[in-house]
Design a protein that fits this description.
The structure is a single chain. The protein has helices spanning about 1-25, 30-50, 55-64. By secondary structure, the protein is mostly helical.
């Protein structure tokens, strides 16, 4: 649950910052799409790894 919450917060903050920069014409759209694709892949990979970890280990990693 903490992983999903943190991802949601990061998405909202990133979206707000990107929108602000886009209004000033400071966004490279190709690079933004590459980063977006990489982050979507990383989110899925991270979720799968988190499911394979021992719950106590994943809790320890999230709290540190």
């Amino acid at each position: 649950m903490a992983s999903a919450t943190e991802t949601g917060i990061a998405f909202v903050r990133g979206l707000g910052g990107s929108f602000k920069f886009a209004l000033h014409g400071l966004v490279d759209h190709r690079l933004a799409m590459i980063i977006l694709g990489g982050s979507l892949f990383g989110i899925q990979l991270g979720a799968m790894v988190l499911l394979m970890l021992n719950p106590s280990l994943s809790k320890m990693v999230m709290e540190s």
